[in-house]
Write the structure tokens for this entry.
Amino acid sequence: MTAKLIKGPEVAAAIRKQIAEELPVLKEKTGEVPGLSVILIGEDPASKAYVGNKEKTSKELGFFSEVHRLPVETTQEELLALIDRLNRDEKIHGILVQLPLPGHIDEKAVLDAIAVEKDVDGFHPINVGNLMVGDDCFIPCTPHGCMKMLEYIGFDLKGKNAVVVGRSNIVGKPVSLLLLQQHATVTICHSRTTDLGAVTREADVLVVAVGKPNMITGDMIKPGAVVIDVGINRVGDKLVGDVEFESASQVASYITPVPGGVGPMTITMLMLNTLESFKRKHGLK
Ligand code: GUN
């Protein structure tokens, strides 16, 4: 292997340390701490694990943290009523509804109901629009984490070719906009792209977020490229990324491993967004 690893736990720990140092100062100034409310509907094991980690991290940091664990039969009206209450709750600065939701609930109606100033996921259309035009907004946590990893290795994106594989609203589209804001030349690839390898081989930075195990192989990567692998796929009893690590790490200069790459960044970015919301509320931004 020649590539250096960009280790998610290491980058995340550095950011959490900054938050932990800032918190007592903010508490002293305002008499309050940031508050995060997470809503989980149903019993999906992966969602339960994610939410448990969010609760643990926010408590460890000294945030006010609450989780509403609701049964799968919860109606859309009940969920909207809870969101409405949290929108008006002074101790809550961030609201997150864990996705996916059960089929009988309209996801868009739910995300639209979260107050824009508490939408720490950055999924509300106003936040999405503000990201598009480069105004103040909450940056969705996973793309935010990818950008922090590039910042951590001191990678200057100006004038570089960035290729994003995947066009989801949660990762592909927002990360493309963030790379563009940093003056990269950005290409977005997806399932209909013809000759994917020809495009990815031009990338100085390659971000892959498609959810297909080992889809990008070393021969599709430009020597010396920085590779950010957002995929987390279960293959047998192992977790693997969207990038085939063995071959890619022979070619890339830096690569994020799976597990231990982008995954651990996401929760820390949620904490950073909640802190940001708290500061905005108190006029400290
Ligand atoms: N489910 C998987 N990832 C996410 C995320 O980033 N936010 C929310 N709300 N749900 C998710």
Notes: The radius of gyration is 19 Å. The domain at 141-263 is CATH 3.40.50.720 (Rossmann fold).
